[in-house]
Structures are given as structure tokens and as C-alpha cells.
Amino acid sequence: RACTRRYAHVRQGSRIMAKYYGDIAKSAKDLFTGGFSYDHKFSVDTKTAGTGVSGSVVQKGEAVSGDLKLNKAFGDQTVDVELNQDAKAKVTVSFASLIPNGKLAVGGTVQDLETIKVSSSIVTGALGIKADVVNYAAPKADASVCYALGSGFAVGAMTTVKGSSPLAYTVALQSKQGDMTYAATIADQLKTYKLSAVNALDSKRSAGVEIVYKKTATATVGFSQKMDGHTFKMVVTNPVSAEVNPTVSVSASLTNLIPKTTATLAAQVDKSMKYKYGVQFSTKL
User: Fold this and answer.
1) Do 155 and 149 form a contact (C-beta atoms < 8 A)?
2) Alpha-carbon distance 76 to 98, whole Å?
3) Whether the Cβ atoms of residue 118 and residue 106 lie closer than 8 Å to each other
4) For the segment 119-170, what is each residue's pLDDT rounded down to a tens digit?
5) At residue 191, does pLDDT exceed 80?
6) Taking 50 as the threshold, does the pLDDT of residue 1 lie above it?
7) Which is nearest to 95 in space by CA: 5, 35, 193, 210?
């Protein structure tokens, strides 16, 4: 088994295993929710003299916001600065070698020191751990662990501790067997159950199914297709009952309509014909 800090997975033979808790069921999250944004957004990013510069404008309903981001590496340290439309600056400094086999980051909004967040991650063998602490005045801590069991299996757990609030926790299991990835998640104090299966049909197509139970059960099926740099995705969700009440979501990403720009359109409509949609343009110079 080989582990590296630069890659997001642990490789075992020909299998790619989850490295951190967030990697468990990632193929299902990518298929069923990835690429579906119903906001309107335009973003542009470039890199000059070793400094990354990006900006974006987002419309959510009637609200419009924007930001400007700078990224600069100084040896093993990286500094990220984000300035929003209210002139509030968020600064994050990441240290790639301060923790052996891990990473440490400290950041927060300059005008609000209570937002300071300390994040750490470490991989040792088949074990991946992440921990975050934010708001020194009323601390909130998130911690997660993932362990690659071998033979395509990985287990993980995540918990949130915040003052007198009830302990929040989630446990998950993943099994990757050939082109199939199976995952199970239990959350919300054992009130929410999620099962998924995703099949990588080939290098350009994937399909999957997911069932979520929280008081009632909902089934979702999805399909994704890549074609000449473009991506098309369709997801259909329906309650597990005799009633047919589907919600259909579609997403299309096109890469050659405008030079150096990816255009994405996402739309969702339900049985009553209520709909929402979003258009995004991302330009890389």
C-alpha cells in the first residue's frame, strides 16, 4: 500500500481507496449532486508571476454578490486572500510540511476574529484524520476519521461538537469492487439512512441509484455521459411509494462554445411543473 500527501486516495493494487471521510460515497455525491447549481454565476481566473487571481459574480434569487481571490505560494506555505463585496477580507495560511504526512491551515475574516478557524489533516498508513475548530468565543469542533480496511473496503465517522448542542455524528461504509462502488451512511442520530450504488460503465459513462430514508423513503437514479469534453447529466428523484411524483434535474457542461470558457446549464422541474435553473460561465485565462 502506498500513501502520498498529494493525492486524495489510497491506492491498493488496482483499487483507489478513500483517504478521508469525505471520500466515502464521493462517486454517489458527484453523480447525484455534483454540477447542479441553480444560481447564475460568472467567474474568471488566471495566474501571473506565480500568483493565482480569480473573481466571480453570483446571483441568488434577487441577491447579487461577488468576490476577488488571490493565491500565492511561499515555499511550503500558501496564502489565500478573499475579498467580498462588503470589503471583508478572509485570509487563510496553509502549512504543507508543519505536520508530518499532514497539513495545517489557519484562517478567518480580518474584521471578525471570532471566525478564525484552525484546520488540520493527516494520513498515516491507511488512516486519514481531519479536525477543524472555529470561533474561539463559542467553539465548534468537527472531526472525522477514515480507515481503509483493504479489499476495496473503507469505513469512517464524523462528529460535530458545539457547546450544549446534542452531539452530531455520522458513520459511513464504502466498498469498491471492480467498476461498482457501494456506500452506506447513517446520520442525524440514527434518523437518516442512505444507500447508494454507482457503476462506472466505462471511462465516459456512469450510472447509479440511491435510496434515502428519513421518516419517508426517496429513490434517486442518475446517469452521466462525457462527450468530446462536454458533460451531460440527468437525475430523477421519486418517493418510494405507489405515487409517481418525480423531480427531474439535468445538467450540461459545454467547453467549446466560448474560447477558454466552460458554460454550464442546470435545470430542475417537478410534477407540478415548478422549475428552477442556473447558468454559469467559468473562464480560465
Assistant:
1) yes
2) 9
3) yes
4) 999 999 999 999 999 988 889 999 999 999 988 999 999 999 988 788 889 9
5) yes
6) no
7) 5
Which DSSP letter does residue 21 get?
A: G
> Please, are residues 202 and 223 in contact by the beta-carbon 8 Å criterion?
no
Question: Rounded to two decimals, what is the model's pTM?
Answer: 0.85
Beta bridge partners of 77: 74, 95
d(CA 62, CA 28): 31
3-class SS of residue 185: strand
73 neighbors 86 (Cβ within 8 angstroms): no
From 17, 15, 16, 14, select the one nearest 127 (Cα to Cα).
Answer: 17
The pair phi, psi for residue 21, each rounded to 5°, is: -55, -40
Residue with cell 434569487: 61
- DSSP-assigned letter for residue 2: B
Any alpha helices (H) in 109-172, and if so which ranges?
none
Question: Which amino acid appears at position 123 of this protein?
Answer: V
Query: 117-130 burial by CB neighbour count: b if 16+ within 10 A, else e?
Result: bebbbbbeebebbb
Instruction: Compute how many other C-beta atoms are within 10 angstroms of the C-beta atom of residue 55.
Output: 15
What's phi and psi for 30, nearest 5 deg? Answer: -65, -40
The rounded distance, in Å, linking the Cα atoms of 120 and 219 is: 36
CA-based angle 120:125:129, to the nearest 5? 25
Q: What is the C-alpha to C-alpha distance for residues 44 and 87, in angstroms, rounded to an integer?
A: 19
- Of 156, 157, 178, 154, the residue nearest 168 (C-alpha): 157
